[in-house]
DNA sequence: TTGAAAGCGATACCAC
DNA sequence: GTGGTATCGCTTTCAA
């Protein structure tokens, strides 16, 4: 491996931009490569010394070293200081004279200095990198309607705190599910966020030994170095139950998610509790188990809608499944909401645009991500003191056209 | 900074899992922290020597050093080799004896050795990190319907090649748009992918000086170290034009994206060319400029639908805008497709579920991402030889219910 | 084929 | 306050 780098040069033709702005044609950037090689080894040292000699601690305007980025040594050399002093000045240590700090900062700016994360990581054992694990989704990671917005919030929260995000995920690597630790070890991540973790994941035991803080979304985990962030799904499902009951429905069915997701248990619990609160009985027979996907919602609906007497309302534990229910109803010629009310969960963007628009339980997905970010960062930087071990955000019922009064007579 | 690390320990109660599987209650992981500190400094050296002494080159079963990850020195010590030899063996250099390599690999496995990316990056100046820049989207990054799936493909392609993905984006950092280089310099990324780059971005000139290969999505850029990946939008828009014309439409309007996106020019060009091919005239008056958002599509539609004679078909250069058109038509009491045909572009997931389902031009988004990944990696590892400077994927017309025969009489 | 040693760029300890 | 220096884990000459 050579370690050398070409430095490309791009010239964007301003005329072309102007032309395109005038609706004429699109701009084309032109990139040409100049053969200047990246300096290394002895050459680099020579350059550094040259900088030290030609620029004594004076007011001369400095410019970045050619062919490579400025380092602490460059700043130290230009100022006649030691790298140690420069490092302290740059990192805000108290034991630097104000004058020195000022001069260091100024030269750093002039040389366009940027700290080298790799070097920093090597010596501090801290990378300022957070790993996000997308679990149980073969292909849809960022394009998963629920996960994507959580990750958006996560990214925002982490950027604010000065952390970067690294993505891991099932199905991305050869040879089945790789160990969490293997993925993490290479990049020395400081913390991790888990999305879609199932309780039957063979690697559950591994979470044990992760040498960094972790946050799970929607999966309760107890411990000093772990935080779980999620919505209060018991409450969310309860809201839906009361809404349907208030509309006069009595034969209410539910299509739940799979049993390996803690949220399934929570939503079922909340839903049945809600029905019970208004004096309705819940029968096990009204429950069908899906897996959160559209297809499973469709299937579950077909099964439920063939029963006699037919349920007048179906609560699906995810919007995707609820969309499947709508499709099944449409195909079976059952009018929504006249003959059947349908409730979903998540409030994904498709929900509002479905026909009819879906009544659902809104989850503040972006805030979930932000909360997750704050939790990992808090755990990393301040330890578990003052960091809640569990963060529960409030879900909200969104009533749209897919639910309506119970039909007076049953088919 | 101490550099010390606690090692957490988590015990997952197996009974609880079983109970939950039985529908009883959800599993709770229990994490407890043991006070064993991470070794460093002198301590670490002592451990290493101990390993070297207690395990001479024998067949003894080795285990990872306690409290820290194994390093090359551990392997070397256990085998009585030099770190240099171990490094060469692990990296597949030819100048190692087969026996040595075998033994090194075996010990590495036993010690659960993982290379340290930071150390490697520091010396090789290669990080195996690719930066993806989300531009021009304040909040929706991963949750943007177009971008998310491209990034999914990108991630997949990169993982296959052994690269990781780092995310940058506008609005993530304080103080306005930061320089591309500033973001990249810190982490020493090996290459970059740009999404949503506008031709009026003040940082265009900066692309010039990026010291690594770059790929733009949907923005043509020429140069040895740059590749642009996208769809053939001229062709895509042409397909839509011919489809609408074939349905008998004569008064056809278009809502384009903003002029700072090269795709806008391409789609307009293709659309007018398509109309011309079938003998239709294109009037500038039929063009409204939006900005790809739903709101701008709505506005544009309101404007167009107030005109007399009213257009009988509208082509929106993005599905989001087309959804806005549908909303406008609905509010204005104009039936789609009976009185107005609507075409979109992108085939986002909402398109198929819209009512009526949207006729649109499908873009293979995931493949776009995969192609981008292959391009950056190719550029990095093999230089520009044999790497196409531009990759154009084929779009596809998807006909759904939002387009239909032109109404015989005009309102 | 292997080993010794010089860094890569930064931090932190210990003197002064 | 400041400087010298060992060190993080690894790659890469250069000798042996």
Automatic annotation (TrEMBL), chains A, B:
Alphabetic keyword roster: DNA-binding, Transcription, Transcription regulation
Entry GO MF terms: DNA binding
InterPro entries (UniProt xref): HTH_LacI, LacI/GalR-like_sensor, Lambda_DNA-bd_dom_sf, Peripla_BP_I
Keyword Nucleotidyltransferase on entry: no
PANTHER family reported in the protein's UniProt record: LACI-RELATED TRANSCRIPTIONAL REPRESSOR, LACTOSE OPERON REPRESSOR
Pfam families the record matches: LacI, Peripla_BP_3
Transmembrane intervals: none
Chain residue ranges for the region called Disordered: 37-69
Keyword Nucleus: no
Domain HTH lacI-type: 70-124
Identification of the protein by name: LacI family DNA-binding transcriptional regulator
């Amino acid at each position: 491996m050579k370690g050398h780098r070409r430095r490309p040069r791009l010239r964007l033709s301003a005329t072309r931009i102007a032309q395109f702005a005038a609706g004429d044609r699109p701009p084309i950037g032109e990139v040409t490569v100049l053969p200047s090689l990246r300096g290394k080894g002895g050459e680099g040292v020579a350059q550094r010394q040259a900088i030290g000699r030609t620029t004594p601690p004076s007011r001369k305007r400095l410019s970045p070293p050619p062919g490579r980025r400025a380092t602490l040594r460059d700043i130290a050399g230009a100022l006649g200081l030691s790298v140690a002093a420069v490092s302290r000045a740059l990192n805000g240590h108290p034991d630097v004279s104000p004058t020195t700090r000022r001069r260091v900062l100024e030269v750093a700016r002039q040389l366009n200095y940027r700290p080298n994360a790799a070097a920093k990581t090597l010596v501090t054992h801290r990378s300022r990198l957070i790993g996000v694990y997308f679990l149980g989704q073969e292909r849809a990671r960022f394009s998963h309607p629920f996960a994507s917005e959580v990750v958006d919030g996560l990214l925002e929260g982490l950027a604010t705190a000065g952390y970067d995000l690294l993505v891991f995920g099932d199905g991305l690597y050869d040879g089945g599910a790789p160990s969490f630790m293997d993925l993490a070890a290479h990049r020395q991540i400081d913390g991790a966020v888990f999305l879609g973790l199932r309780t039957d994941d063979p690697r559950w035991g591994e979470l044990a030994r992760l040498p960094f803080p972790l946050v799970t979304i929607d999966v309760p985990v107890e411990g000093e170095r772990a935080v779980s962030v999620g919505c209060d799904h018991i409450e969310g499902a309860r809201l839906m139950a009361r809404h349907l009951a208030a509309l006069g429905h009595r034969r209410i069915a539910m299509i739940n998610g799979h049993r390996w997701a803690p949220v399934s248990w929570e939503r079922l619990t909340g839903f049945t509790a809600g029905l019970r609160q208004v004096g309705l009985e819940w029968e096990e027979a009204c429950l069908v188990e899906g897996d959160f996907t559209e297809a499973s919602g469709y299937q579950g609906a077909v099964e439920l809608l063939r029963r006699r007497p037919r349920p007048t309302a179906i609560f699906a534990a995810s919007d995707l499944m609820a969309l499947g229910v709508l499709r099944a109803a449409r195909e079976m010629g059952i009018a929504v909401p006249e003959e059947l009310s349908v409730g979903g969960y998540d409030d994904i963007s498709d929900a509002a645009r479905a026909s009819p628009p879906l009544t659902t339980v809104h989850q503040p997905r972006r805030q979930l991500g932000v909360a997750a970010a704050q939790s990992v960062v808090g755990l990393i930087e301040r330890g578990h003191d003052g960091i809640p071990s569990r963060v529960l955000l409030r879900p909200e019922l969104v009533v749209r056209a897919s639910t309506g009064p119970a039909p007076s007579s049953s088919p």
